[in-house]
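Annotators were shown the component list below and the corresponding predicted structure, then asked to write short factual statements about the assembly.
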Amino acid sequence: DTAVSQTPKYLVTQMGNDKSIKCEQNLGHDTMYWYKQDSKKFLKIMFSYNNKELIINETVPNRFSPKSPDKAHLNLHINSLELGDSAVYFCASSQAVGVGTDSGNTIYFGEGSWLTVV
Amino acid sequence: DAKTTQPNSMESNEEEPVHLPCNHSTISGTDYIHWYRQLPSQGPEYVIHGLTSNVNNRMASLAIAEDRKSSTLILHRATLRDAAVYYCILRASGTYKYIFGTGTRLKVLA
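Structure shown to annotators:
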């Protein structure tokens, strides 16, 4: 079983459309993330949820809305898609992090969702 | 956020050791040093991490300078499957935020 799975793997859509990418992790982790990797291969964090609560919200247009129905799922909904949204979106998860209890907190990434906006 | 600096690319011959350097001169005392790698068309995967002491695991070794301002990821015998982008990342203890830099693209020559 894939630890962090995301769907769809490939998505081609027109400008102005609304689309969602789904993510599920079966590792029992409390924390999930969305990262965006653009054409220049920079990998930037977008959001992070811990136990369904938003804890990181980087400077991302409000057209992007994450939703976490439970701690095993973190979906990404994008409204009014623009050409610049074309990228690879990675979902990831990790154990919760606590000060003084750090053991490295490895992040596990999904295989990515290739979004192309035309 | 603490920043890391890595060479854009490196080459190695197959079966030879590879030393991938990372500078992190602004590291704070509670920052962990993590290394991830991203194989073509895949998500990043964990390689190794450390705080102060050198670390070894089945994938690699991590050598951390005494002043912690730099570190080196060591692949003892590079294989073609090790061709990837290697990211050196600092993560403050107790935070969820991993900041990825530009990484080093490792090319392994047969």
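Statements collected:
1. The beta strands of chain B are 9-13, 18-23, 31-38, 45-50, 55-56, 61-64, 70-75, 84-92, 104-109.
2. The CA atoms of residues 9 and 105 of chain B lie 4 Å apart.
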